[in-house]
Write a structure and sequence with these properties.
Distance between the termini: 26 Å
Helix content: 55-70%
Largest sheet: none
Shape: elongated
Radius of gyration: 16 Å
Structural class: mainly alpha
Strand content: under 5%
Length: about 110
């Protein structure tokens, strides 16, 4: 996934330290604020790309859900990452569709002995 617009899904969590500390929460919020738009853009490109793997789509989905769970829990309240629910839901739906379609293809290919 890092080849798509330069976003590494694990980078949003890389800056966190001392889980639960207020400085870790502020730092995580800052990292999300800076990198989340790139994450959504990269994930959206992945949805429409034939070269983005199912594994990459799964990583993007995992990172988006991780951030959105922070929004729901209130740890990122007021953060811009929590505001555009429509765009997020469209990207998540696209990723889930891509993953589902890829899983069906892989099962079909295995059944045919490919």
């Amino acid at each position: 996934p890092s080849s798509v617009v330069g976003f590494s899904p694990s980078s949003a969590r890389a800056a966190q330290h001392a889980p639960g500390s207020s400085s870790a929460l502020r730092m995580a919020s800052h990292v999300v604020e800076d990198s989340y738009p790139r994450l959504l853009n990269s994930a959206s490109l992945c949805v429409d790309s034939d070269t983005c793997s199912i594994e990459s789509a799964e990583l993007y989905l995992k990172e988006i859900v991780h951030v959105q769970s922070g929004c729901a829990a209130g740890t990122l309240s007021g953060n811009a990452a929590c505001n555009d629910v429509l765009q997020v839901s469209e990207v998540v739906a696209g990723l889930r569709q891509k993953i589902g379609d890829g899983s069906k293809y892989e099962v079909g290919a295995r059944a045919l002995g490919a």
